[in-house]
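Dissemination and training. As part of the outreach component of the grant, students in the summer workshop were shown how a complex can be specified as a set of sequence lines and then modelled as a single object. The example used during the hands-on session is reproduced here so that future cohorts can follow it. Participants entered these lines:
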Amino acid sequence: MAILVDRRDDGTLAVYYDGDLQFDSRDEAVYHTALTRPALTVAAARGGARLTVLVLGGGDGLAARDLLVSPLVEGLTLVDLDPAMLALARGTLAALNRGSLLDSRVTVAIDDAWRAVETAGAAGHMFDVIVVDLTVPRDLAGARFHTIDWYRGLGRLLGPRGLVAVNAASPCGRPDAYWSIVNAMRAAGLPPVPYRVKIPSFAARGYGDDWGFVLGSQAPVTASELVGLDHGGASGWSLPGWRAAFQFPAASADRQATARPTRLGGHMLLHYLINSAPIADATGAEWDGLTAALPPLPPADDGRSPLTPDLAAALAMPVGHRLAEAALFDRVMALMPALHPDQTRVMIATFLAAPARFLAGLDMAGLVDRLLRRAGTLPGRLVAELRALRRLLARVSLDPERLLGLGLRLVTVVTLVVILANLAFPDAVYGKGGDPGSSSATRGATTGLAATSRSVYDPRASESVLAAGSGFRSTSGGRVAVDEGGTAFPARHYRGLRSSSHYRSHASTGATPVAAPVAPPVEEDESDGVYRLTPDTDILPDGRVVTALTDDAYVVLGPQSSLVVDQRTGQPLLTLDREPTQVWRAVKEIERQRDGLKVSAEAKRAWLDWLGWLAFVPDQADDERELANLEIAVWRLEQARAILGSVPAEPPPLPAPPLAGASEVISGVWLLPDGSGLAVRRPEGLAILDGKGWYRDAARQNRLTEPYPDGFRALMTTLLTQQVRDRDATRARLDSEVTLAQEELSELLVDKGEYDSLAASQAPTSMVEYGPKEVPLQEAQRLTNASVTLVQQRLSNLQTQIARLPAEAALAERALVSLRP
Amino acid sequence: MLSVTQFDNLDPSCDAGRAWERLVAANPASGMMQTLAWATFKRRLGFRTLHLALYDGATLVGGLLGYLGPARPGPALLVAPEGPVLPWDDPVLARAGLRALVEAVEALAPAHGLIGLRVEPRLTPPAPRLLRGFGRAPVDFLPTETLCLDLTGGPTAVRRQLRPKGRYNIGLSVRHGVTVRAASGPDAQTVLVRLLAEAGERGDFFVEPAGVFTALVEALAPTGQARILIAERDAEPLAAMLLVTCGRRATYLYGAVANRQRTTMAGYALQWAAIEAACAAGCSEYDLFGYEPHGAPEHLYAGFSRFKRQFGGVPARFIGAHDVFLLDRLADAVVAVAGAGAASEGAWT
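and obtained this result:
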């Protein structure tokens, strides 16, 4: 285990354990008071004149510090596995924990908590209070400390009126995990009282807006026993506030009815910790943990099923026709859980983007054969599918795509098994390796607004997201750009906008100014992109929308037209006519993100209101700044929305080429079908541009009188050159893949020839070498033929890709020639 | 006569441990991920290891260090990145060795829920014939395309390989007063993690959690296999990297530059210092670990490939990861999953 102490200049510090924040000295008092005070209070209310206390974990000595405050504590045994943490507690942290581990009432043991509890139970030791201050589990070994078996073990160390206080999880950040823990205590015969507080440093790390604990006792804890709750020495902790700590939003508490408690070996808690979706509004108080009736306990997870309940339910759907099975396959893919804390939804989605590749290395005929040997243990419908598949595979070799296309439940199950095995090896999703499923590991489809108006990008396909990143807490003003998720990026600087009278004229005609909630920070440079709308589009402090075209040029979107600007000089290059599709996309993207930010801001505002009772929370300023920044971002998006003017609800029709056969380079600029120049849509009308001049007609008889836009010509030359270069690189990559596939095919054909030759003289069952093994000759022939089919299919796909390489490459090259001065 | 011995957390200081490390270091198709220190690192992250050593009589001739993900119910893969370690240039012995290893894995599979073995030797394509029956894996752990510098002529020869821009930027960085120091303690780890996080946010790519780097450095630094290099100016860290060595190969495993003072070209000074350090450590090869050779601007490696290209070197390509499924174990797993899904049996019949 790796401990990292992050010391700050102001004397505060934070301790990380294997990368997870354990505590921040600025708010650890909130955590430790909440963990220890209710148990001590109830123990005292129950007449405990002398208390014996067991602390499991808590090697930092901070829980012990708060327990030892009580004069009732006669003895405290602390068990921690990590000598390094105990050494830290006795050294660096000694001032913070007030030397708690040196207190004469304290006994420290270095041991595994599970073993220590078993040993204590065997020895007949009993405790009045047990405090479980263990880290949040990241694996099954850690998850056993929240199983029914564990809490039963703790129950044996407590008298009927003894208490256990547990550090659990965030009720709103990981609601299913939190209620799974609560239910495990309940199933173990320790009626639980759930409660929660805000730990600002935890929230800042994304652990959840609230943090939950559970108090348990064989004799149920009553509200009256908690009347004496005090602040435990933490200044500013208001007594009425404790009541709020026992109240939960219904959206969180509802999970109690479904969150399965786990038995030893069960994996549902880990699944919940990794996959449970957070609840946006953590402020609700509809459910009261001290008074509410409890729903029936959901069944316990004993680890025997390798599937999550939702996946099992999906697979239990009746077998249907091919289209229904295809839909079920998609659903199974969508339900695929992360199996490791570091696997994000984006990773999983990327990982599953081409599911056929998981079957590429599989001898399906061989597997079908093995499964048919197990037919007695399989549902009848699957056996029927197996038989049909065996007949089919005897006739033809199917590549993975065609296998998936068969619409068989069996193939869905096999794919699921292989994917689960891959996901269970967490490196697989973020290894540095390439992606063999794609011959050119390129970034995903762009959501950039710089795409041509004819691209397939549709903002309606995306949902709003909550701002979970720390970007909105930043104090760095205009030096960073923040996106909708709260991720911060270095701000892009847009030269020339400050003096752009052209743009202002648009704004004055099209925009209805929106009142700012807070004045934008004065240190912001008005030409910095402060909000990242898409990877290539920023919103400026005043709401203007700017899209980067190249490193040297950008476009300012306006309601009536767009302005192309030279980034190096800040000089306008050309004005393009309004392109309705591009503006529509920008507006819809802005509206989508604005709505998401409004939800985030509303949740933050409500949270701050709820937080009022914890007046002493030190990091409230961070929350307030985050809220202010969210409101500013909403305001900027409102401004941007207003600037771009009204758009129809549905996307406008794609723009028709100004001349038949022309292809779009960027919105409003088209390559002529013969590559002899560009057609440019300007507010004043169409212009034809080549290296010699620009004209108002396609026949190039009438020259325009305005000065020739040489800067714009140079920009388009750059863009076209880039296109040609991109295609060259893609072609080179595909050619390289083709060469490799041909080499592989050539070797396989040699193998095939050798096996076929052997078949002329040997029995089909005679044993031959195949890879590291020896297999019957007919099996070697079958496997080799299948490999040949696969490689031929790959070659065919590559050649199709090469053939599909846009014909505009030659066109662009011709255009580059025609654009030469 | 070949035999397979299973080791449990082999001590690198014992005879068998030293023999294994020598074998890995000397095998060009293998590398750091087959070393005992790397196994220690992965175990600290919760992975489990299966170490199979292949003996010809009493002589160690090959084997594999396989990794399993953290324990959980359900199907699992045994993954041997940069493995198995085999005498690939002796196809007969390699074939017999691979067969013995696969059979050993098959025997261990039920206890670990294994449905397959993934191997990823650093072999150039096409895949050798003895890997027939292994299919291309859906993901690779190593970059299949990389850029390697030949260090055999020392820093002077490497400097001659540099592109002019690379040479210029190294000099520029020195003129800006950028210096590079090696370290591996907690402070250096913090610097590396911070800069990687900064680069991850800037470049919108995933950076492993801090605990990964801490565990990696703490496992590999004591054996001299890993060091952090930090480029700084006026004590401000501007770039950091993790350099790993195994045998005669040095690998630029992770690296990042700060958002601040980008014009100091600290990344160039850092890379050059790493190359010099690799030469001093007796390495003959410097692997820049991931490269896009065709200049495709949209490729995931495009950005850092432009940077790496400035150091010269030769592109290398490997066969990538290959899987062999243990069909009986896979069939068992399919039965288990189908059973879990067929709760309403009537619907399936």
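Chain A touches chain B through 109 residues (CB under 8 Å). Students were then asked to discuss how this feature might be tested experimentally.
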